[in-house]
Design brief:
The protein has three domains: about 100 residues, Fumarase C, Chain B, domain 1 (Orthogonal Bundle), CATH 1.10.275.10; about 240 residues, Fumarase C, Chain A, domain 2, CATH 1.20.200.10; about 100 residues, Fumarase/aspartase (C-terminal domain) (Ribonucleotide Reductase Protein R1, domain 1), CATH 1.10.40. The strands form three sheets. Strands 1-2 form a two-stranded antiparallel sheet. A two-stranded parallel sheet has the order 3-4. The radius of gyration is 31 Å and the shape is elongated. By secondary structure, the protein is mainly alpha-helical. The chain is about 60% helix and about 5% strand. About 35% of the residues are buried. The protein is built from 19 helices and six strands.
Length: about 475
């Protein structure tokens, strides 16, 4: 690609202190522009606000501020239209913008860096980006929750086995099962939203670490950039990456939920389960076995979860032994953060599009819910309701199950006489108790799988989604 504009690569910002040029291998090693160019819009936004504050505080003239702002806006347009050339010899996005600004507006560009350092500059850039990305992720999670709620509404009559230890346990509504993921993603949204409070603090004006001698107005800059407050300690301001760690932690937990969902879809799509069929557009085939239809999308989501975990662990490890204040190690935070943002964002979009296209085999689910002694607990509850202690009932039903296994029968296939041979308390009404529908609809405790409870949970979720949508609208 040809670029119309070139940046000045002849000077370093710090060259006055050094008698030798930076070695090319060092320039390449220390450069971060391949990663932090992503910050360009936020870097320019922060610089414009800083420029306005300098004029507001009479540190530079209004005329100089106007020239600087016009130049910065031109550079933003050049980058967005592909006319700007990046070069490793200018190691980061801040240097690129400042160098180009000198070409655009002349010597007045040297006034822009008054009262700030690259240390607080990068901190504000990352906070601005992460604030936007966090809000965007929360909005997309709300959209994913809407997809889940719609699936629950559309399949309120579908029954499948609930599992513990990956063994069939008790029948539940499919709607109840999928709404568990609604709750998981709701907690994720709450975690991201809580982290926003600490992201939304402005470090600009802390300079390198000690603040500045210029009469800056940090509150004015914060207002221009939409920050809720300014950071309280200049040393902490430039060395703090807790807000990134919190985001990566929330992202890791969110990816756990995607990975668990992925694992279930992978299992359910196997011949052994046969509960679902994945859409062809979200599956792949085999290079050698023509019959194969592989759940590669879900497998990759499960695999990419490890990447996000790694991003969190890498930043924790990097930060754990850093003395105050800023250290160059912290340059590595952005690649970890951006990686996690991109992976999580991609997984959310994949599932928003894929989930509605999955085909359910209601018959296979229903058959599975009718075998494997899933009604054993209900038989025990029946005995308790007729006057014996639960532990005694548990022992009795365990004996009945063992008998049924020997006879190759389910509990509901045993005759009344067979059941009564274990307890005279069992009457003919037991067969109504042992049907999946009855087992489900008797579980009316709050949060249970009874149809009326699940319908109420769906209605409550729809109200929550309405409020969440209003909260996160730009």
């Amino acid at each position: 690609m040809q670029f119309k504009y070139r940046v000045n690569v002849t000077k370093k910002l710090w060259e006055g202190r050094f008698s030798e040029k930076t070695a090319q291998i060092v320039e390449a090693f220390t450069a971060s522009i391949d990663v932090d160019r992503r910050l360009y819009a936020y870097d320019i936004k922060g610089s414009i606000a800083h420029c306005k504050m300098l004029a507001h505080a009479s540190i530079i003239s209004d005329e100089d501020a106007a020239a600087l702002i016009q130049g910065l806006e031109q550079i933003k347009k050049e980058i967005e239209t592909g006319k700007f050339q990046f070069d490793d010899r200018l190691e980061d996005i801040h240097t690129h913008v400042e160098s180009r600004l000198g070409e655009v507006v002349g010597n007045v560009a040297q006034k822009l860096h008054t009262g700030r350092s690259r240390n607080d500059q990068v901190a504000v850039d990352v906070r601005l980006l992460l604030r936007d990305e966090t809000l965007r992720i929360m909005r997309r999670l709300v959209e994913l929750q809407s997809v889940i709620v719609n699936i629950a509404k559309d399949h309120i009559d579908v029954v499948l086995p609930g599992y513990t230890h990956l063994q069939r346990a008790q029948p539940v509504l499919l709607s109840h099962h999928v709404m568990a993921y609604y709750e998981m993603f709701l907690r994720d949204i709450e975690r991201f939203n809580d982290g926003l409070r600490r992201i939304n603090e402005m470090p600009l004006g802390s300079a390198a670490l000690a603040g500045t001698t210029y009469p800056i107005d940090r509150n004015y800059t914060a207002k221009l950039l939409g920050f809720a407050k300014v950071s309280a300690n200049s040393i902490d301001s430039v060395s703090d990456r807790d807000f990134i760690l919190e985001f990566l932690s929330a992202a890791s937990i969110c990816m756990v939920h995607f990975s668990r969902l992925s694992e279930e879809l992978i299992l359910w799509s196997t011949s052994e389960f046969g509960f679902i069929e994945l859409p062809d557009s979200f599956a792949t085939g085999s290079s050698i076995m023509p019959q194969k239809k592989n759940p590669d999308v879900s497998e990759l989501v499960r695999g990419k979860t490890a990447r996000v975990f790694g991003d969190l662990v890498a930043l924790l490890t990097m930060m754990k032994a850093l003395p105050l204040a800023y250290n160059r190690d912290m340059q590595e935070d952005k690649s970890l953060l951006f990686d996690a943002i991109d992976i999580l964002s991609a997984c959310i979009e994949i599932y928003i599009q894929m989930l509605p296209k999955i085909k359910l085999d209601k018959s296979a689910m229903g058959q599975a819910a009718s075998s494997g002694f899933l009604n054993a607990t209900d038989l025990a509850d029946y005995l308790v309701a007729n006057g014996i202690a639960f532990r005694e009932a548990h022992l009795c039903v365990g004996q009945i199950v063992r008998y049924a296994i020997d006879k190759n029968k389910e509990l509901h296939d045993l005759s009344l006489e067979e059941l009564q041979s274990f307890s005279a308390l069992i009457q003919k009404d037991i067969f109504d108790v042992l049907t999946p529908k009855q087992m489900i609809d008797r579980r009316t405790s709050f949060g249970g799988t009874a149809t009326k409870r699940v319908k109420a949970a769906i209605r409550e979720a729809e109200k929550q989604l309405g409020n969440l949508t209003k909260s996160f609208v730009s």
